[in-house]
Amino acid sequence: MGLFGFGIVLAPAIGPAIGGVPVESFGWRSIFLLPLPFCIAGILIALKALARAHGHPRRAFDAVGTLLLTAGLAALLNVPVVGNHAGWLSVRALGLAAGGIAIAIGFIAWERRAPSPLIALNLFEHRAFIGATLVAFAYGAGLFGSTYLIPVFVQDIASFTPSRAGYLLLPPGLALAVAIAFGGRLSDRLSPRRIIQAGLILFALSSLLLALADATTGFVVLAAWLVIGRVGLGLLIPALNVGAVHSLSGTELAYASAAVNFVRQLGGAVGVNLLAVILEWRLDVHGLGAAGAAFHECFAIVTLAFALALVPAGWIARR
To answer: To 10 degrees, what angle do helices 251-286 and 291-308 make?
Structure first.
């Protein structure tokens, strides 16, 4: 898990550093061309390297569940955006919220009777699994939310160029990649609960330090504070995977792995979404003259989220 995660997190480490150069040279639209060669390479590698399943029964794809989940998430993730601009009690915002909740209820009802559900809801009968998914949600929100906030903060407040803002994320990203490989080895020896709690504390400390940053905080200091948080995330994720599936067996393992990954990505979507809305709101309240205060409040929210995640982390078994 640690070595597999090394590849997954190395890409977000290198991506911002590479992406800052075309943005600075050719404008923001050029960033959307960057993924194309990697997508093509990924398809070719998958066709050659990934073995086809032979002799295993095929399960029907849950198309209905996929459509319901996609529609429900699209509606609910847009509620904060619409509410922030059109008003939280506007017809559009209330309609999206009601529609999203109705679709979510329909999704849960469908998944309970689907022969091959997209998400096995019976997994959430395990207390340890619930704890792991809540931590995974916080992990996604913290990782992707901070990856959104930091470049905006250093460009708007510290006047970094896009390329320098991208370079700022490179050392923490490399630290995350190394830490996740080390975290895999550590998870073989120590209690996953303790490793997860230590990782959450490190990231909360990093966010708290960023909440104290201002326009005079130097590049090296910011990078060091970010490294602390990324080391925490790197230690956390292998132990989180172990803690999520330790009490499961058989086909539950595959469903559990998919569910934890889904919740982690969902946390990233929700984190970026809410932090963007909150940042816009607080910038309106404070005004451009005190824009730093709005970023400080957003980093404080991330700190609080990771501190609260220590509670469900305690539900994960020691061994």
So the answer is: 150
